[in-house]
């Protein structure tokens, strides 16, 4: 299976987080130059340092994904510094664990700004550069809850459902450009976001994590397991895969 990314340039949003950091390191180990993008610059720089210590190439970028100007400038900087964009992993996301009655309109907009609008804008500005080099691969982070409902997560479920179907529409529009677009849909994964959910719900963290492991494989996912699926979609190993919603959740929605 050919997962070699030598000579490719990858942009990863949410690169300081659990899944983003694991994916940044994995893609760099396969030869990609990685732009590690996060609002948390210290975390992004820490990830870059680990990549460089392992012999890889990466650079950290602090970006507010709710700002169109920041996104446009990011893409311009990456192309200026590295000459191209081949892989885009739209991974950054936030979650508000609320019902319809509990969430404010402002909170709803915040979730959609990060989880949906930012993906649209990243694609808008990256796609012309992918077309210029003959194609590329875009991977958008959806969720199991983008394919089925979940309790006390209305805005998150709605936003991830939008991501999954936006991905399909992008795949249709840009297949002729040799740009493949797929979504990765993780289940509960051992990341700080999961702990944050427990805190939002006012639940004991250990109990919450134990509940999260209740699926056919009897455990949560690990960030590297999601990263391996992203590598598959980013590489020529998935050369005939586009418009797909790949579920990586230990059987959670089976």
Q: Which key phrases capture this entry?
A:
254 residues, alpha/beta, seven-stranded parallel β-sheet, 15% strand, globular
Tell me roughly what share of residues is in helical segments: 40-55%
Distance between the termini: 27 Å
* Corresponding CATH architecture: 3-Layer(aba) Sandwich
Q: In DSSP terms, counting alpha (H) and pi (I) runs of 4 or more, how many helices?
A: 8
CATH class: Alpha Beta
Low-pLDDT runs of 5+ residues are none
**What strand line-up does the widest sheet have?**
3-2-1-4-5-6-7
Report on this model:
This protein has a single domain (9-248), classed as Rossmann fold (3-Layer(aba) Sandwich). Helix content is 47%, strand content 15%. It has helices spanning 18-29, 41-53, 68-82, 105-132, 154-174, 192-201, 205-212, 223-234, and strands spanning 9-13, 33-38, 57-62, 87-90, 136-141, 179-186, 245-248. Strands 3-2-1-4-5-6-7 form a seven-stranded parallel β-sheet, with helices on both faces. α1 (18-29) packs parallel to α2 (41-53), α3 packs parallel to α4 (105-132) and α4 runs parallel beside α5 (154-174). The two termini are 27 Å apart. The mean pLDDT is 98.
């Amino acid at each position: 299976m050919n997962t070699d990314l030598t000579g490719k340039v990858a942009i990863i949003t949410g690169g300081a987080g659990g899944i983003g950091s694991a994916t940044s390191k994995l893609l760099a180990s396969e030869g990609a130059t990685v732009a590690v993008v996060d609002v948390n610059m210290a975390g992004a720089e820490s990830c870059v340092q680990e990549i460089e210590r392992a012999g890889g190439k990466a650079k950290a970028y602090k970006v507010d994904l709710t700002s169109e100007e920041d996104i446009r400038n990011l893409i311009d900087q990456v192309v200026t510094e590295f000459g191209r964009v081949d892989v885009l992993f739209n991974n950054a996301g936030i979650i508000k664990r609320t019902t319809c009655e509990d969430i404010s309109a402002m909170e709803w907009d915040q979730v959609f700004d990060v989880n949906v609008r930012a993906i649209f804008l990243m694609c808008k500005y990256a796609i012309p550069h992918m077309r210029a080099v003959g194609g590329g691969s875009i991977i958008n982070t959806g969720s199991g809850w983008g394919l089925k409902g979940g309790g006390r997560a209305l805005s998150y479920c709605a936003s991830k459902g939008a991501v999954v179907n936006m991905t399909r529409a992008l795949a249709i529009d840009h297949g002729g450009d040799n740009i493949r677009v797929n979504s990765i849909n993780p289940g509960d994964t051992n990341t700080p976001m999961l702990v944050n959910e427990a805190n939002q719900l006012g639940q004991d963290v250990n109990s919450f994590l134990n509940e999260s492991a209740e699926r056919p494989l009897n455990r949560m996912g690990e960030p590297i397991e999601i990263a391996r699926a992203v590598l598959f979609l980013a590489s020529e190993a998935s050369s005939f895969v586009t418009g797909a919603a790949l579920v990586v959740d230990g059987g959670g929605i089976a």
